[in-house]
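In this section we walk through a basic example: taking a raw amino acid sequence and producing a predicted 3D structure, encoded as discrete structure tokens. The instruction is simple. Fold the sequence below.
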Amino acid sequence: MIRIAVVEDDPGYRSKLEGYIADYGRENGENFQISTFTDGLDIAENYTAGYDVILMDIEMKHLNGMDAARRIRTMDADVAIIFITNSAQFAIQGYEVEALSYVLKPVSYFAFSQELKRAIRRVKEKTSFFLHIPQKEGMVRLDVSRLRYVESMGHNVVYHTDTGDVVNRESLKNVEEKLVPHGFSRCNNCYLVNLAMVERVDRDYVVIAGIPLQISRARRKGFMEDLASYVGGE
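The resulting token sequence is shown next.
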């Protein structure tokens, strides 16, 4: 899941950008978590490095986008910043805060989608982690960002992805050691869950892609703590 912050004081533009992001997600099969802010001060004050991409308006009342970006860069060197602005003159200033790019108002969907695509590619290049799973026919290279959950079945594990399942003879404990550093957590003895894929938690079940997976009593506290930490940007 890509975490995006939209910082825009104009409610009309804020709504338009949210709509563009939703359209892009539907067209390209991307999952987004969107947070909105009405001023640069709102995001820069008490900032935590919990975003992958920030769409930042320049001209805002209390703290303009450039000054907000300067503050953010002191705390977060990795987030991709895209400025949304009325004037191309701000592009030069953007180098100071290592902005990825800028989009001129009025914002067209095509121009916006091209810059968002660049930002997502950069995020994935930095965060992608692959498992190499032996199969009878050879080797499967599995991007863990596409992995929904891993299920233990006897002496095998099943990697459930958004494009199909991959089975391998190994222990879930061995898989857990590889995936926990990449945002995975056990909800019971049989399931290792990708926290980025969690849709909701219903009492004793966590729902992934519409599939309810039981949360055991023994694992509940640790799993919910892991989920809260992930959602909060660690």
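Looking at the output, two observations stand out. The chain has a mean pLDDT of 91. The helical segments are 11-28, 40-44, 65-73, 90-94, 109-127, 172-179, 217-231. In the next section we compare this with other chains.
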